[in-house]
Amino acid sequence: MAEDREVTIYDIAKYLNISAATVSRGLKNNPTISKKTCKKIIDTANMLGYQSNAFASNLRSRQTHTLGVLIPRLNSHFMSSVLAGMENAANAHGYNLIIAQSLEDVEKEKRNVLTMFNKRVDGLLISLSADATGIEHLEPFFKRKIPVVFFDRVYAHTDSLSVGIDNQAAAYDITTHLIRQGCKRIMHLGGNLLRNVYHDRFKGYRKALREYHLPFKESYHLVSNGSEQAGTAAAQYILDLPPAERPDAVFSANDTAAVFCMLALKAAGLNIPGDIAFAGFNNDPISKVIEPNLTTMNYSGDQIGHTAASRLIDHLKSENNRFTTSAITLRADMVIRASSLKKG
Question: Which of the following CATH numbers is that of domain 63-165+301-331: 3.40.50.2300, 1.10.340.30, 1.20.140.10, 1.10.357.10?
């Protein structure tokens, strides 16, 4: 036998002078094969260096016990927590994950979706890229009845499930908190409004302003990618405004932009929260490092990931063609810290 050739059940059968069918059943501990013969088959397989072809077996059963996971970016504390929750759920049920990132590029997202499809994943967990205008690239999954679960950045679809939080209510609560601290000129550092998370946070911000009879100014709504650079740029934008027109509070749709905006404004001599109060979103570890600590919205990435993966696996094990519900809304809680406490 050539050393570089893969060992097959036929090699084991030839070595033991038994049928390949007997070897196949013995490797699976089939009760029709005696324990003594099973042990002899397994020992010989190990000795010859046999590796079971799980992929071929999975194709025959039409399951790979693999889930595809597509996220916007890996270098995010929130997404890392989501992945940890998914991994725990998947491992508990004997599933593996294939993970890819879109890097906020819909074309890369489309390529990754096709790769997941071609790898025959049993189901797909996806959080959409910032610039995705639709979900036509997921049609191969829907046509083949391969279940799709959206998480965090979701998209309503009759054949899928969405897992996230009530972003509008959360943003409303944060903006209301800032208003009750006496803030009247509140700037919103938001994200791409194509995505539900940023669209809904903007809606919650606008709703609070309306209910407290505060005007909305387009100049107080900045859209960015929420990066460190975006936070620093927002600070420069604020500093370039005439002092009387500067906001007295900033509500950022994520913690990263909020923190780096705070750092730049502090370096320029502004007092936080005296001159300008701050609130973020996500409760990233950075929110507890910045001084003063950042008021933010806490919701568990681990719980979102675990819930999304668990529901997908439950669906795969059921006989239903459709999910029993279209959306799951998890809890979010405001964490009030010194950055927003103008009134102490």
Answer: 3.40.50.2300
Give per-residue pLDDT as tens, 157-189.
999 999 999 999 999 999 999 999 999 999 999
CATH says 167-299+334-340 is which class? Answer: alpha beta
| Every domain of the chain and the residues it spans | 9-52, 63-165+301-331, 167-299+334-340
Three-state SS letters, the chain? CCCCCCCCHHHHHHHHCCCHHHHHHHHCCCCCCCHHHHHHHHHHHHHHCCCCCHHHHHHHHCCCCEEEEEECCCCCHHHHHHHHHHHHHHHHCCCEEEEEECCCCHHHHHHHHHHHHHCCCCEEEECCCCCCCCCHHHHHHHHCCCCEEEECCCCCCCCEEEEEECHHHHHHHHHHHHHHCCCCCEEEEECCCCCHHHHHHHHHHHHHHHHCCCCCCHHHEEECCCCHHHHHHHHHHHHHCCHHHCCCEEEECCHHHHHHHHHHHHHCCCCCCCCCEEECCCCCHHHHCCCCCCEEEECCHHHHHHHHHHHHHHHHHCCCCCCCCCEEEECCEEECCHHHCCCC
The confidence score (pLDDT) of residue 302 equals: 97
Which pTM was predicted? 0.82
CATH level 3 topology of 9-52: 434 Repressor (Amino-terminal Domain) (1.10.260)
Instruction: Tell whether the model's pLDDT for residue 253 goes beyond 90.
Output: yes
Model confidence pLDDT, tens digit, residues 286-309: 999 999 999 999 999 999 999 999
Tokens at 218, concatenated: 């387009």
C-alpha 129 chain-centroid distance: 11
